[in-house]
Structure formats: C-alpha cells, structure tokens
Amino acid sequence: MIFASKNLDLKDLVALSGAHTLGMTHCSSYTDRLYNFSSAYNADPSLDNEYADRLRTRCKSLDDKAMLSEMDPGSYKTFDTSYAIATSPSGGGSSSLTPRSSPRPLPGVRR
C-alpha cells in the first residue's frame, strides 16, 4: 500500500498510470527486466514475451545507457487510452511497466 502511505487514492493511481502514455525513457530504466532477470529466466516472466522481444530491438544490452525507448509505443506523443488498453489482459498486457497478469484496466479509464 505504497499509495495509501503517501495519501494517494485510486484517482491518483489512475492519473499516474495514465501519465505513462506520454514520453520516452532510457533503456537503463528497465533493461534489468529484459536481460539476466534471474537464474531461471532471462526476462521477467511477468512481461508479455512479444513486447519484451520488441523492447530488446531498441535496448540491445544491460549496458545500454543512452538509448531512448517509447513508454507507449506508437502513441508516445499523444495523451490517449492506448496505455491502459495495452496493459489490460484483453489488450495483451504488453506494457514494459505493467505485468500481463494485471487483473483489469484501472477504474476511471474510458476506452
């Protein structure tokens, strides 16, 4: 309950999650989930395999510190619902930041 401990509620969670639809990030912020994740898995098993493969085409190694990657591929310059749809199980759960096992889209998100 990190959100509750910071006096944040469900609307705050929706707003912060929705903010992932905009912008770029350095590969170094998530390559640890793509390479050498554990002794049992190369990539984080909670990531969608197809999306992880696509991220690896941009972020070639753990040492990649300079490369930028879209946080919401295909619409990173537009504030839209594509991130929420992509992170929902029916949308493929393909976000690099959200496990595909997410129970459902966040409340308050309109498709």
UniProtKB/TrEMBL annotation:
User: Which reactions is this enzyme annotated as catalysing?
Assistant: 2 a phenolic donor + H2O2 = 2 a phenolic radical donor + 2 H2O
Binding positions (heme b): 20
A Pfam family the protein falls into: peroxidase
The record's subcellular location field reads: Secreted
MF term (GO), any:
heme binding
Segments of skewed composition (Pro residues): 102-111
* Superkingdom as given in the UniProt entry: Eukaryota
Single GO cellular component annotation?
A: extracellular region
Report any one BP term from Gene Ontology.
Answer: hydrogen peroxide catabolic process
Q: Which UniProt keywords apply?
A: Calcium, Disulfide bond, Heme, Hydrogen peroxide, Iron, Metal-binding, Oxidoreductase, Peroxidase, Pyrrolidone carboxylic acid
Query: Per its Swiss-Prot or TrEMBL entry, what cofactor is needed?
Result: heme b; Ca(2+)
Disulfide bond positions: 27-59
Which residues of this UniProt protein bind Ca(2+)? 21, 72, 80
Cofactor: how bound: Binds 1 heme b (iron(II)-protoporphyrin IX) group per subunit.
Residues of the region (Disordered) are 87-111
**Could you tell me which residue ranges the Plant heme peroxidase family profile domain spans?**
1-83
Q: What is its main location?
A: secreted
The answer to whether the entry has keyword Mitochondrion is: no
* Family statement drawn from the similarity comment of this UniProt entry: Belongs to the peroxidase family. Ascorbate peroxidase subfamily.
Q: What is this protein called?
A: Peroxidase 3
* Native species: Dichanthelium oligosanthes
